[in-house]
Hints:
The protein is of the alpha/beta class. It has twelve helices and 14 strands. It has three domains: about 5-70, Winged helix-like DNA-binding domain superfamily/Winged helix DNA-binding domain (Arc Repressor Mutant, subunit A); about 80-185 and about 325-355, Rossmann fold, CATH 3.40.50; about 185-320, Response regulator (Rossmann fold).
Amino acid sequence: MQTKYSIVKDAIKSQILDGTFQPHQKISSESELMKQFGVSRHTVRLAIGDLVNQGWLYREQGAGTFCADRSKEQSASAINPKRIALITTYVSDYIFPSIIRGAEAYLSNNGYQVSLFSTNNNHENERKFLESILSQHFDGVIIEPTRSAISNPNINYYLNLERQRIPYLMINSYYDELEPFHIVVDDEKGGFIQTEHLIELGHRNILGFFKNDDNQGTKRMKGYLRAHRKHQIEIQPNNIVTYTTEEKATKPLEVLQQVLQEPQEKRPTAIVCYNDELAIKLLEVLRQASLRVPKDISMVGFDDSFLAELTEVKLTTVSHPKSEMGEMAAKVMLDMIKQTKGTKKQSYLENDMVRFDPELIVRHSTMAVE
C-alpha cells in the first residue's frame, strides 16, 4: 500500500510527465496540495523535498516551487547506450514473440538496446510505462496501443513525447486523434476475405465474433458486414457477437454454447473469428457439443499464428506479417531518430503509415455447404 507521502510525490511527478506542469512553471502551493490530498504540510514538504533533490522541481525563495527543465539532463544522458522502448499489449504468447523478435533483431544489429514493456491491454499499465520512458533516456518508442477503439486517458503523455522530441510510432493499430505514423494490417480487408471465402462456399448463416475495444476488431467486423452487402446476403443482427478484453475468456464461449442449443436448421453453418486464439477456444466448445469442423460447421481464424496448425483441424486463417512488421517498425524508427537529429531526409515518413495486405490461407477448417 502506498504511503501518503508517495501518493503526493507520484501525483506531482505524473503531472510533470504528462505536461500539466511545464519547465519553470509554478506548481500548486503547499496549502493547495494539502487540501487536494488531505495530508499534512509535513507530508507535502517531504514529497516536494524529495522531488527537488531528484531534480524534478526547484525552489525560489519567496516565490514558490517550480517545475525543473530536465531537457539538459536528458541531453547529457544521451551518452548512454542507444535505447528503444518497445511497448506491446502482450509479450510471451500468441503472435507477439514473433513481432518482438523481428524488431529486436534489427535494432540489436544496429547497436540499439531494446527495453520491453507489456501493458496487458490495460491503460494504467500503459501510463506507468510512459512515465518510466519519459523519466529516462530513450531515443524512440515503438508502441502497440492499448484498447485503441476507445478514448485513451494517456494522450497527454504522447504529447509530452512529442514536446521532448522523442519519436514514436504505433503497430497493429493507432490512436486516431494523435495521427501517428503507424504500421498495420488492412484489418477491414482481412475481415472481408474471411467472410467472402465462406460465402463463396455457400454459407449464408455466418456467426461473427469481434473484439470491440481494439480497432482491429471493429475494422474486421466492418469487413464482415461489407462482404455480406457485396453478395446481397441479409445480415442477421444476432450473428454479430462483440466482446471486450475482460470478456474474451468467457463471453464468446458462452454465446456459442447458447447458439448451439438452437434447432439445427437455425444454427449458423460457419464462424468468422476475431483471431486464431479465439478460434481454438471455440473449437473446443464445438468438440464438446460433438460437432465436427468443417463437416458440421466451418471456421476461419485471423493472424496465421502457430495455433492455426496446432490442432488436428488445421485452421483456415488470414495472414499477419508478425516478424516482418516488427522489422519494419525498427527500420522506420531508426529513420525517425535520424530525422529528429537532422541527419536523414524523408523516406518512409513521406506517408504516415505502412499497411500490409492480408491474404487468406486455406487449410482444413472450411468446406462447401453440402
